[in-house]
Fold Fe2OG dioxygenase domain-containing protein.
Amino acid sequence: MLSPPGEFSAAAAAIAADGWYLLPGLLSPTQTRALAGECRAMHEAGQLKAAGTGANRTASSLRGDLTGWFVAGALSVPQRAFSDRLDQLRQALNRELMLGLVDSESHYAVYRPGTGYGRHLDRLRGDDARVVSAVFYLNEDWRPAEGGALRLYLADRSHRDIYPCAGDLLLFLSAQCEHEVLPATRDRMSIACWMRQRRLDAGV
Ligand SMILES: O=C(O)CCC(=O)C(=O)O
Ligand SMILES: [Fe+2]
């Protein structure tokens, strides 16, 4: 299903101009709460695993999150609602910016208190598939005093701190925007996603 015409025009324009955008309202509060409940339940059941970095995804000291990938063909009801909306956004970005985004990958992430993710780019070594990073936040009533900002480093050498507030989707260009996750004083839950192009070295 297509999104209403123009729904994501502001996001597309900001990504083209600035390389990033904070998009509210992708899902209803009820849908967002369902995802948060599922993420918390998977965490409590021990189903989220220490994440790695790089193509081999071995555990790393750079990052302290626990993750669980969404499995295509086995999405839960809340995951399907999220993935459908992300797909509408992906198609709108293709229409407005001609990005050639063919699919996306997503995982739940929980950062325990005191853990973060050091400054990095989201492109994997030798792999140019990731074009747009999207992080959907699941934390109700987050207060800045609790820390946990995503610090986004901008081209003009300034930075922006974005707090992980439920319902907000942070979008940025994977190849250009260095960023880090600052430690928090409570569990920090999100869905990290990447919209991908066909790999340039993959042939046709
Ligand atoms: O959770 C966030 O705000 C960002 C996570 C991140 O940078 C990543 O998973 O690559
Ligand atoms: Fe990242």
Summary: The chain has a mean pLDDT of 94. The first strand starts at residue 20 and ends at 23. The two ends are 27 Å apart (CA to CA).
